[in-house]
Amino acid sequence: MFQVIRRFATSVSNVADIVIIGGGPAGLTLGTALKNSPVTKHLKIHLVEGGKIIEPLNSFLETPPPNYLNRVVSLTPSTIGFLDSIGAWSHFNQERTQSYDDIVTYDGVSGARMNFEHPDIATMVETTNIQAGLLSRLNELNSQQEVKLVIQEDTKVTSIAKDSITQWPTLKLSNGDSLTCRLLVGCDGYNSPVRHFAGIESRGWSYNRWGVVATFKFADTEFRFPTGWQRFLPTGPLALLPLPNGYTSMVWSTTPELAEMLLSLDETEFLSMVNAGTRLSTEELSMIYDLAKSKSPDLLEQIQWRLNLFAGKLKPADEENFPLQVSEIVTGSRARFPLKLSHADTYVEDRVALVGDAAHTTHPLAGQGLNMGQEDVKSLVGALERATSRGLDIGNSLALEPYFSERWPQNHVLLGVMDKIHKIYSTDFAPLVAARSFGVDVLNSLGPIKDFMVGRISGNSKR
Amino acid sequence: MLIVQQFQKRSFIIPSLISSGLSYLSKDIRLADKMEDGELHFPKTEFEKSQNTSRPLFQRPEPNYPGHVPLYNFEKLLMFLGSSIGAFVNPTNNNFIVSLGESTAFPWVLNRLRTQMLNDPSGRQILKERPHMTSKSLNLDELKNYPDNSLGKSYFLWLEREGVSPDTRVPVKYITDPELAFVFQRYRECHDFYHTITGLPIVREGEIALKLFEFMNLGIPMTGLGALFAPIPIKSSQRRRLLSVYYPWAVKNGTICKPLINVYWEKIMKKDIDVLRSELGIEKPPDMRELRKKARSKKKQVA
Amino acid sequence: MIRHSRNLIKLQSVRYASTKGKENSATENLRLGYLSDAQNAYMDRVIRVDQAGELGANFIYNGQYLALSHKRPDLKPILKHMWEQEIHHHNTFNNLQVERRVRPSLLTPLWKVGAMGLGIATGLMGKEAAMACTEAVETVIGGHYNQQLRVLTNQFHVDVVNEETGVNTPTVPEEIKDMQKLVSQFRDEELEHLDTAVEHDAHGARPYWLLTEAIKLTCRGAIWTAERV
User: What pLDDT is attached to residue B204?
Assistant: First the structure.
């Protein structure tokens, strides 16, 4: 009955202070941080998410799935510190996270390697674990506070427009409601409708590479401390990142043809291919790729032959320079996603802010994408706190601009650096290979500079 | 005043600079450095005692395959200098050619050859099985019964005509990587087959022409050096013949024919040699022995 | 010749130290070994570099006291206290150097000038800079003493053969144990100085990173040189 009356009445617009579009890690972190901060917790916040998230995330924490999911990210100590400061880190399923102290990157052509060692240099966490922990903390905060954050799941945004009188962003949702807000935050991914609404250009290019992900278990041949491995092949880096209990998450950024080939292999062939990718020379690998593309029946035999030859030549002391071989794959964990670089011209407009992938996307080679988004959230929350405590209108550019000016240059530099690293390593032209190997060897022996790099990447540098 | 006069004038700067410079070499400093690094008087665990990690400063690295003689880079350089001069002055001594071949077989050259082999199914088979050619493995006794004009028969006839045997090939000693050493060994062993398929004899002129052919096809530096410098000390009539007939043939055929390193000779012994030639893309050059005989008889006539 | 007599002196001191406070029956049958050449070389190095180091610390505090005492009289007690402890350290090592006839560092005049200059310069830069300088120097010295302590603990065993049974039980001689205690105590005092400096706004110095890293680098270079020259 209530609904019948509503249908015939003009739709009453709901008004909120902040509407966050997107229930991914960025959106949930923003909501949790705003609710956690004593300055902003009184704001009326709505979080709109197009998919169903509440039930799956709650069940993730109650009955964790038996296998590790294939979307895993590497969190820096700075991100974990922030998540801890908003009270969310303790809600994560800690047993499914793996912190590691060592990152080894080695050149696919020359073998020049760089070793980064620092206690807890990064931690691997499944994306769902992050979302579930945040949601759990959000529910806890909601139960403690009067003004609750409203999560509207399974609700798509059908249109966004500026209200004719107030110029505030007004959203029409798929359940018929309409929502007006003082500040609209887009945490809605690369193809952000919020960004389009605000008329913000995003510039960049596609890397013409796909990231192939899968979850494996290492062969149980010897004990190793959890280490992050990355081999820079000319087609793109192959990374093996540690998960608990001897599992590992692989991200292999490679050309579209090779990505298609990798997904078409059966499981044993795929395992051998990954082992080959971490060890064999580029000439042997191109022979293997050709055999795989032409669907040769003796592909497995040939890969095994080259791997055995390699193992025969390897001295025992050098064995620890390569990751262990992978022996099992988690079925169904194979997937791929396209890689592109993009950076929005600005992160803030009148009554609009962009956070996370809506603002920038990058190559996964340094695992910085999500961490940049978390730093964005931290900065935006800081700007909103300052604005609220001074009584400003939080949707005003004056309130939002400090977030843009703090984050945009830093993100731009990081995006640029990762782009250059990708470009330097995308070639096997001998003089360039020699130059970059020499550079890596020199850098590897300069401890203080490496410590500085690690500090910058993990956000721990002394200010 | 008196005290000042008693003060001796001594040079201070130069001797102290010298002593501080030389002191680095002093035994005390080296010993104290070793103590700091924990190399002396450090109680070793049982495991460490079982490891024999102490090595004298100059020790040859371990051999990677039976017959391997690891050389330092300066030794390889000396070998190159000696063998290049020796091969130029006395090409009939096989040792010089062998050493020149191994000292100029840089890893990137052999790597390129190995990549060629890896990209070809028959080449891959050769790399996997690593066949070695001996008179037993080639079944020389049976070869004489093979059909005429087959590869096996032609090989047998060529061996008889030239009076050589496949067992006289020197094994590779100085190349570091075992697989690359095999590739070079394979090249050496197939050399007789290249003679057979081109019909060139083992006289000096024939070897030079074949060297250029091999260089255009395989890219091994020794063959290139041979083709460049070996024609210098030979007779001018031979050189004229080489440059006008055989060098153009070698350049053309070496470039357009298929990479010969991939051919699995042992398995195609029964194949007709002309069919093989057309498959590989090789034309037979004019018979060198005939040309030489004609030239000699012409000279006799004139004289 | 000189080496021989030096070894004799060392042997006597070893033997003397070993029999200190031990029961006669136990020591009569023990034959004590000499410290090896390497161990002697390392002891010489320790005394040389520590003497130079404490001289440097002495002069640094001297310089800082000079520079800061006029502008910041409130800092005089704390600087004086730290300086006096360094004077005590310096004197200890001076005595050890004479006792064991170790060649002191040839570049001692350079260390004097450099340390005084560093003390005065950082003092003139202000309280925070002076404290940051202290922090940097004490950090390096803390690590340096730790390294020495490590070697002194692990690698200074001498053969002690029981003449009756012929069994060899390598032991650290008493005087080395005293040396360990000395180094350990001095290290604790230096780290106390570090904590004091941090308490007194060392992190407030501008430019912090540049100042501390430059001073640490210089200290490490000076230590390396004093060990050898």
Answer: 87
Mark whether A153 and A91 lie in a shared domain: yes
Residue owning tokens 């000699």: B296
**Stated pTM of the model:** 0.77
Domain around A51: 2-95+125-205+340-426
- Which residue from A minimizes the CA distance to B114? A283
Q: What residues are paired with A361 via a beta bridge?
A: A342
Contact of B122 with chain A, judged by CB distance below 8 Å, is answered with no
Whether residue C179 contacts residue C17, with contact meaning beta carbons closer than 8 Å, is answered with no
Q: Does C41 touch chain B (CB under 8 A)?
A: yes
Same domain, A182 and A300: no
What letter does residue A40 receive in the DSSP assignment? Answer: T
B68 is in an annotated binding site: no
B115 to chain A, any CB pair closer than 8 A? The answer is yes
Average pLDDT over residues A105-111: 92
Q: Do A232 and A189 sit in the same domain of this protein?
A: no
Q: In this model, does residue C186 exceed pLDDT 70?
A: yes
d(CA A111, CA A279): 10
CA distance C17 to C11: 10
Question: pLDDT confidence of C25, banded at 50, 70, 90?
Answer: very low
Contact B31 C41 (CB under 8 A): yes
Could you tell me the CATH number of the domain that includes residue A312? 3.30.9.10
* Distance to chain C for A448, nearest Cα, Å: 10
CB A31 within 8 A of CB A61: no
User: What SS3 class is residue A453?
Assistant: helix
In tens, the pLDDT along A288-344 reads: 999 999 999 999 999 999 999 999 988 888 888 999 999 999 999 999 999 999 999
Rounded to a whole number of angstroms, the CA Rg of chain C reads 20
Residues 6+ apart with CB under 8 A from C27: C18, C19
Contact B31 C42 (CB under 8 A): yes
Residues in chain A: 463
Q: Tell me, yes or no, whether A83 and A187 share the same domain.
A: yes
What confidence tens digit (pLDDT) does each residue in C203-216 have?
A: 999 899 999 999 99
Q: Which amino acid type is present at position B143?
A: L
Contact in structure between A201 and A44 (CB atoms under 8 Å): no
* First-last CA distance in chain C: 22
Query: What phi-psi label fits residue B258: left (phi over 0), alpha (psi between -120 and 50 degrees) or beta?
Result: beta
CB A345 within 8 A of CB A195: no
Residue to mutate among B62, B65, B118, B127, with most A CBs inside 10 A, is: B118
How many angstroms separate the CA atoms of C161 and C33, rounded? 8
Q: In chain C, where are the structural domains located?
A: 36-228
Residue range B233-262: mean pLDDT, rounded: 91
What distance in Å separates the CA atoms of residue B245 and residue B243, rounded to the nearest whole number?
A: 6
Q: Quote the CA–CA distance of A85 and A145 in Å, as a whole number.
A: 18
Prediction ipTM score: 0.81
Q: Are residues A180 and A238 in the same domain?
A: no
